[in-house]
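SAMPLE LOG
Freezer: B-3
Tube label: C17
Construct: single chain, 72 aa
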Amino acid sequence: MTIILTQNEEPIMGIDGLMYVDGRLSIDNVRLKVEEHNDSLKKNFPHKIANGFYFAGSSGYPLKRISKTYSL
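STRUCTURE (predicted):
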C-alpha cells in the first residue's frame, strides 16, 4: 500500500513524502511506521517531519488519493 506523507494538509514533495507499507496493517500500525520514519529524519532533516498521511492508489501516475488525511 502506498501512503503520502503530509505537512499541514499538503503532501511532502519528492521521495521523502512517499512510503510503502503492508496493506494488512491497521491505521494505528501505519501511524507507528510514520512516527518511526519521522524519528529517523528528526536530527538531520527536521523540515521533512510529517504530521499526517493519506493512502494513495498504487498504480498509475499521478497517484490518486483514496482516503482522508489521518493526523499523527
